[in-house]
From TrEMBL:
This is Metal ABC transporter ATP-binding protein. The keyword ATP-binding applies. PANTHER family: IRON TRANSPORT SYSTEM ATP-BINDING PROTEIN HI_0361-RELATED, METAL TRANSPORT SYSTEM ATP-BINDING PROTEIN TM_0124-RELATED. Residues 8-251 form the ABC transporter domain. The keyword Transport applies. It comes from the Bacteria. Signal peptide: none annotated. Belongs to the ABC transporter superfamily. GO terms for molecular function: ATP binding; ATP hydrolysis activity.
Length: 262
């Protein structure tokens, strides 16, 4: 697969729950290797867009390709790592921080040889453990690795779930509000980590309400309010005029046509 294949390509994409549309007629193309921030008000359909991208929500209409293939097949192939806005996790389950992050590698373990899968953990393929330790370091949770996840604060849990996504070393990182509820030092750490991921060619798609971070770090901003209100550089999209348009969900903001990130 060449790098010229878009990371994401949506054509006249619609999404709905119980036949009630929540996203309408979205067409866009995102190249690989860029950092895109998705911005929009509560209920705008941002998480739903990510659910389409991981194949857990089927389009009502239209087409979505991830790296040229269906979202579900790319998820299965390990090309997409995803961090949900709210993890459906059993936080009281007695599992350590380290083992929680390791669950991010389970899909990849399918590619290990059978004997590696059957070995005790300390003898298994070392790449899993290395990826987990690197991800824990990246979110500054290495010191908490042995603790049960149930003991962690909300911000720490968020950092662990981000580490779980990072440990997958996927080509595309889909992150739903990774900065919500984390303290300023952790936020800086996370943003620097994501910047490093981008610098090695990974594609980052991040839902956020944090405009200063989107302005500083993102290559592209998608403004979403049920439909695509705008797409462009942070300077273009995060202007007062565009944000005012976003608030009303102006459909006429960008009439028709496909939006392609620069
Ligand atoms: N599982 C579901 N069943 C029915 N309706 C849903 C479901 N999930 C989301 N919705 C509805 O779809 C719309 C878009 O929700 P979504 O979670 O995608 O918004 P969002 O932009 O991520 O909002 P927020 O900023 O609050 O996270 C909302 O009206 C929401 O109530
Ligand atoms: Mg959401």
């Amino acid at each position: 697969m060449t790098d010229s294949v878009p990371a994401l390509e949506a054509r006249r994409l619609w999404a709905a729950y119980h036949q009630q549309p929540v996203l309408e007629d979205i067409s866009l193309s995102l190249p690989q290797g860029q950092w895109t921030a998705i911005v929009g008000p509560n209920g705008a359909g941002k998480s739903s867009l990510l659910n389409l991208m991981i194949g857990s929500l089927a389009p009502l209409r239209g087409e979505l390709k991830i790296l040229g293939q269906s979202a579900a097949s790319q998820r299965r192939a390990g090309s997409i790592a995803y961090m949900a806005q709210q993890e459906r996790m059993e936080w009281d389950f007695p599992i350590s921080v380290r083992d929680t992050v390791l669950t991010g590698r389970y899909g990849l373990m399918r590619h290990d040889s059978l004997w590696q899968r059957l070995l005790p953990r300390q003898w298994a393929n070392p790449s899993h453990r290395q990826a987990v330790e690197a991800a824990l370091e990246a979110v500054d949770m290495a010191d908490h690795a042995a603790r049960p996840i149930g003991e962690l604060s909300g911000g720490q849990k968020k950092r662990v779930m981000l580490a779980r996504a990072l440990a997958q070393q996927a080509r595309i990182l889909l992150l739903d509000e990774p900065l919500a509820g984390v303290d300023p030092p952790s936020e800086t750490l996370i943003l620097n980590t994501l910047e490093r991921e981008r610098s090695i060619g990974r594609t980052i798609i991040m839902v956020t309400h944090d405009m200063p971070s989107a302005r500083l770090y993102a290559d592209n901003v998608l403004l979403i309010n049920r439909t695509l209100v705008g797409m462009g550089t942070p300077d273009e999209m995060l202007s007062d005029a565009m944000l005012a348009r976003l608030a009303v969900g102006a459909r006429e903001a960008l009439p028709g046509g496909e939006r392609v990130a620069a």
